[in-house]
């Protein structure tokens, strides 16, 4: 995830909207005698006719916890927002190391403030000082943190789980993109708010692979997307939380990115509480 100082930042869930300096959460209502293409039993009611927009930006972990506990988020909450930078470049002929005529191009880059960094929680100790990131092969410094920045979120796991036991509903939020909305054993999908799918492909190097290879094109569901579930088996709640609360497991097996043998960080999700009759604005 993104981080600044000692706080993590996550893409704001797209089921919360903003209108006239107010943050609005939907009320989940049952659909009675209505037939839908996907046979969903519920719909999201924002209870307003005003024009709404997504809360574009990244929420600080402390505010994100409020969202996960189904509490109100202030319209004045701190958001981390990137900005776009347009760069001009030229293509190089690798054989002659000279520029190619008529090959001037522009690219749009996403930039953050200088003190923003990527926070990675490895499965084992890493003994590296630098890592190459991105298509431009930029060298990045690796700094080991003194403490686990996910502690605040992990401490709330049992509190959120207890709310889910009482209400019988929860929502799963994508913290990184995935390839499919999943049916979860012991729960049923009742509604979903998904961001616009995007196309993804890259060069990937697997363990013990010195050269790597280009992958095929994937159509992915973006981070911030939210899927609402109804608990159908209370005995499965612990298992659901252990598998999907701050874990990269929400994906359909698909080589090479969505493969348990080659974890790449896709399908990272977290679970939030959901009171069926509670919505509102902050």
Tell me about this structure.
The protein is mainly β. The model has no long low-confidence stretch (mean pLDDT 86). The protein has helices at residues 61-68, 151-155, 157-167, 237-244; strands spanning 2-4, 7-11, 17-19, 22-25, 27-30, 42-45, 53-54, 58-60, 79-80, 83-93, 98-111, 116-118, 130-133, 138-141, 169-174, 187-193, 198-200, 203-204, 213-214, 218-220, 226-231, 247-248, 268-273, 280-281. It has 2 domains: 2-79 and 149-281, no CATH class; 82-141, no CATH class. The protein is 11% helix and 37% strand. The longest helix has 11 residues, at 157-167. It has 4 helices and 24 strands.
Secondary-structure blueprint:
Layout: E1 2-4, E2 7-11, E3 17-19, E4 22-25, E5 27-30, E6 42-45, E7 53-54, E8 58-60, H1 61-68, E9 79-80, E10 83-93, E11 98-111, E12 116-118, E13 130-133, E14 138-141, H2 151-155, H3 157-167, E15 169-174, E16 187-193, E17 198-200, E18 203-204, E19 213-214, E20 218-220, E21 226-231, H4 237-244, E22 247-248, E23 268-273, E24 280-281
Antiparallel strand pairs: 1-2, 1-12, 2-8, 3-4, 3-7, 4-24, 5-6, 8-9, 10-11, 13-14, 15-21, 15-23, 16-21, 17-20, 18-19, 22-23
Task: Provide a brief overview of the structure.
The protein has 282 residues and is mainly β. Helix content is 11%, strand content 37%.
Features of the shown structure:
single chain; 282 residues; mainly beta; 2 domains; 5-stranded antiparallel sheet; 4 helices; 37% strand; globular
Instruction: Name the overall outline.
Output: globular
- Trace the largest sheet across and list its strands: 9-8-2-1-12
Task: Please state roughly what percent of the residues sit in beta strands, choosing from under 5%, 5-15%, 15-25%, 25-35%, 35-45% or over 45%.
Answer: 35-45%
Residues in helices, as a percent range: 10-25%
Rounded to the nearest angstrom, the radius of gyration is: 21 Å
The mean pLDDT is 86
Could you give the distance between the termini? 26 Å
Please indicate the count of domains: 2
Number of strands: 24
Judged by helices, strands and strand pairing, the structural class is mainly beta
Main sheet summary:
5 strands, antiparallel
**Could you spell the SSE succession in H and E letters?**
EEEEEEEEHEEEEEEHHEEEEEEEHEEE
Annotation field: number of helices: 4
The poorly predicted ranges are none
């Amino acid at each position: 995830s993104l981080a600044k100082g000692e706080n993590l930042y996550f893409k704001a869930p797209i089921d919360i909207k903003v209108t006239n300096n107010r943050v609005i959460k939907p009320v989940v209502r049952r659909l009675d005698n209505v037939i839908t293409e996907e046979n969903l039993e519920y719909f999201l009611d924002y209870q307003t006719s005003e024009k709404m927009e997504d809360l574009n930006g990244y929420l600080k972990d402390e505010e994100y916890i409020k969202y996960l506990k189904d509490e109100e988020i202030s319209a004045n909450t701190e958001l981390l927002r990137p900005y776009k930078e347009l760069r001009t470049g030229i293509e190089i002929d690798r054989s002659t190391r000279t520029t190619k005529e008529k090959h001037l191009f522009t690219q749009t880059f996403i930039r953050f403030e200088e003190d923003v960094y990527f926070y990675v929680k490895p499965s084992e100790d890493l003994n590296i000082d630098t890592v190459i990131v991105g298509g431009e092969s930029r060298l990045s410094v690796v700094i080991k943190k003194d403490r686990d920045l996910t502690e605040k979120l992990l401490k709330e796991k049992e509190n959120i789980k207890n709310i889910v036991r009482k209400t019988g509903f929860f929502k799963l939020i994508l913290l990184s993109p995935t390839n499919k909305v999943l049916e979860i054993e012991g729960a049923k999908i009742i509604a979903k708010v998904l961001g616009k799918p995007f196309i993804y492909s890259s060069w990937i190097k697997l363990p013990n692979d010195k050269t790597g290879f280009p992958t095929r094109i994937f159509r992915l569901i973006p981070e911030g997307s939210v899927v609402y579930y109804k608990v159908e088996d209370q005995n499965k709640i612990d298992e659901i939380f252990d598998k999907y609360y701050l874990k990269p497991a929400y994906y359909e097996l698909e080589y090479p990115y969505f493969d348990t043998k080659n974890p790449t960080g896709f399908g990272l999700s977290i679970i939030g509480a959901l009171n069926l009759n509670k919505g509102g604005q902050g």
